[in-house]
């Protein structure tokens, strides 16, 4: 078995993303970032959400003259997917930096976006990739970003 195939088999076994898939998500997030509508903050964000079936749904941040209606890139991707009937997700890649081609920082999701992820994703399973380039990225589980999060299962707890 060659190395790429071995890595893929191991990653699938561990329910992790392959480097190949991570790169594909990062490139999709970079493409989405080009469509960022951010004339007020000049901070451009792109996201690429990987569905359980292997589809990639992208999103960008969309700002508004009234400021508060602004939608983050991550939530744009989630709301696009959910509104199309997709509710099972594996991972999301996020790229964000001040206007310009260079990705100068890791853009971690804001608290509101973490809560939206919590609504649809298993926190011990869902992987969040933040990237500066195709080769420079970090992968975390949602539960690391939102420890002890409040989610739909809390409302079904019969031991209250
Ligand atoms: N933003 C995102 O798109 N995602 C985040 O997780 C953090 C912030 C956007 C919102 C706004 O358009 C700009 O970045 C500056 O806050």
Got a strand count? 5
User: What percentage of amino acids are in beta strands?
Assistant: 15-25%
Helix content: 25-40%
The rounded Rg comes to 16 Å
Question: Strands of the largest sheet, in order across it?
Answer: 2-1-3-4-5
Order of helices and strands: HHEEHEHEEH
Largest beta-sheet details: 5 strands, mixed
Structural class: alpha+beta
- Parts with pLDDT < 50 across at least 5 consecutive residues: none
**Which molecules are bound in this entry?**
tetrahydrodeoxyuridine
The first-to-last residue Cα distance is 52 Å
Give a verbal description of the structure.
- The chain is an alpha+beta fold and 160 residues long.
- It is built from five helices and five strands; from the N terminus they run H-H-E-E-H-E-H-E-E-H.
- It has helices at 3-13, 19-33, 73-83, 111-120, 142-145, and strands spanning 43-51, 56-60, 89-98, 127-131, 137-141.
- The longest helix is centred in the first third of the chain and has 15 residues, at 19-33.
- The relative contact order is 0.14.
- The structure holds tetrahydrodeoxyuridine.
- Tetrahydrodeoxyuridine is lined by residues 38, 41, 43, 45, 61, 63, 70, 72-74, 109-110, 113.
């Amino acid at each position: 078995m060659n190395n790429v195939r071995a890595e893929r088999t191991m990653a699938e076994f561990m329910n992790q993303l392959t480097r190949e898939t991570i790169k594909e998500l990062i490139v999709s997030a970079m493409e989405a970032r080009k469509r960022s509508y951010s004339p007020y903050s000049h901070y451009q964000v792109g996201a690429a959400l990987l569905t359980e079936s292997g589809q990639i749904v992208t999103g960008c941040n969309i700002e508004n003259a009234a400021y508060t209606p602004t939608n983050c890139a991550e939530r744009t991707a989630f709301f696009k997917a959910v509104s199309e009937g997709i509710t099972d997700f594996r991972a999301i890649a996020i790229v964000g930096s001040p206007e310009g081609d260079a990705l100068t920082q890791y853009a971690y999701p804001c608290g509101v976006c973490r809560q939206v992820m919590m609504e649809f994703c298993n926190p011990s399973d869902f992987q969040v990739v933040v990237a500066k380039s195709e080769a420079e990225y970090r992968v975390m589980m949602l539960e690391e970003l939102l420890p002890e999060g409040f989610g739909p299962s809390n409302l079904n707890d019969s031991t209250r």
